[in-house]
Design brief:
Layout: E1 12-14, E2 33-37, E3 40-49, E4 54-58, E5 63-66, E6 75-77, H1 87-98, E7 102-106, E8 110-115, H2 121-139, E9 151-156, H3 159-168, E10 178-181, E11 186-190, H4 195-213, H5 225-234, H6 249-252, H7 255-264, H8 271-282, H9 285-288, H10 293-310, H11 312-323, H12 333-344, H13 348-361
Parallel strand pairs: 1-10, 8-9, 9-11
Antiparallel strand pairs: 2-3, 2-6, 3-4, 4-5, 7-8, 10-11
């Protein structure tokens, strides 16, 4: 779990995948299978098979972890090929899941589940966020694929209802306005709070969802958090996803992140900023440190914003490189640093100086 620097208590990007493993997967199960989870029969395709765990992609895009050693576990191979649920099939499934007090609003790319009578405000926000993501990335040479699944966003009537859903899904987070769950491939939020803050959260989490559904990130490998969370921070400002102000770089800057950076790393070429860049390139520990999590998000934003705006070729290259890594393999510290220097073309300390000067120019 991770949180935005200035809204540490309002959002989270959540991945419930099992820990990454190194070369321990064995292809024991393959092809289309039928399996039982929570008393419901489902179909999917195994992504990896271990002695004590099989990770399955369901037809609705969920990632399921099943234990073949448990006596209640049931699965069998089926004839045929894996096919994701169609939008109408998934829409009917969502209606059955959430009941008569909710409606499902469809857009070109989304199925938005919301309380009855909310109109099209949320659907427009999610659709605009995704279209802005695709446009911004494409203009910078990033390969953006068409996703295999309709993206699902759940808007609950209030915070309590959202947390009831978290509890049902065994999601252990607190004080958040919304999350993107890698396992369910859903954004979940609510409209019972301060709308401005929630909308910024939605843009952040929708960027995660867009990135993982278009191949910009892989849902199955160990992508450095400075990249995934830097992307989330990148799309929080409204100007990044709207055409009216998208040409003005200063308006695309994340003001909250800028303020954190000014406070934590004042002046140009601050050595502590350089060390923070090195720390993020090497590992994700800063995101788990309550004393430095705000700095981690802000520095990650600065790194990705600099690359996107000043070195778009390297921006596209680092996203392509990390997305194409082998699935379920831990990204070791030395490998992370070596890949960074090869793809970006400089060491993290030189890179930090360029980012620092770029921030000053804003």
């Amino acid at each position: 779990m991770a949180c935005s620097p200035t809204r540490v208590v309002t959002l989270a990007f959540l991945s419930l995948m099992p820990a990454f493993v190194c070369d321990s997967a064995t292809a024991q199960v393959s092809g289309l299978i039928e399996f039982s989870e929570s008393g419901r029969l489902q179909r999917g395709i195994p992504l990896v098979s271990l002695a004590s765990e099989i990770v399955v992609m369901g037809r609705d895009g969920w990632l399921h972890s099943i234990d073949p050693l448990q006596p209640e576990t049931k699965f069998k191979s089926l004839e045929g090929q894996y096919e994701p649920l169609s939008a109408p099939e998934l829409r009917n499934q969502l209606r059955a899941e959430f009941g008569k007090d909710f409606e499902v609003v469809a857009t070109q790319n989304f199925l938005v589940v919301q309380p009855l009578g909310r109109g099209d405000r949320w659907a427009k926000l999610f659709e605009q966020s995704h279209r802005g993501f695709v446009s911004y990335m494409s203009k910078r040479g990033v390969n953006v694929r068409q996703g295999r699944f309709p993206m699902v966003a759940i808007v609950f009537p209030d915070r309590g209802a959202m947390y009831d859903e978290f509890k049902k899904q065994k999601i252990d987070v607190s004080r958040v306005a919304g999350i993107y769950s890698n396992n369910s491939n859903r954004v979940m939020t609510h409209d019972g709070g301060h709308l401005t803050s929630i909308i910024a959260t939605v843009r952040h989490e929708a960027a995660h969802q867009s990135a993982f559904n278009t191949g910009v990130h892989s849902r199955l490998n160990d992508t450095p958090k400075w990249i995934t969370e830097g992307i989330g921070q990148l799309f929080e400002p409204a100007a990044v996803t709207t055409s009216t102000t998208a040409s003005l770089r200063r308006q695309r800057a994340n003001e909250d992140s800028l303020q954190v950076l000014k406070k934590s790393y004042p002046g140009k070429n601050n050595p502590e900023f350089a060390q923070a860049v090195m720390n993020l390139v090497s590992g994700d520990e800063m995101f788990a440190d309550e004393d430095h999590v705000m700095d981690a998000y802000s520095v990650a934003w600065a790194m990705m914003f600099y690359l996107a705006e000043r070195q778009p070729r390297e921006f596209a290259a680092i996203l392509k490189h990390t997305a194409m890594r082998r699935p379920f393999v831990t990204y070791q510290r030395d490998e992370r640093r070596a890949d960074f220097e090869e793809v970006i073309g400089m060491n993290p300390y030189e890179f930090s100086r360029r980012v620092s000067w770029f921030l000053e120019s804003l």
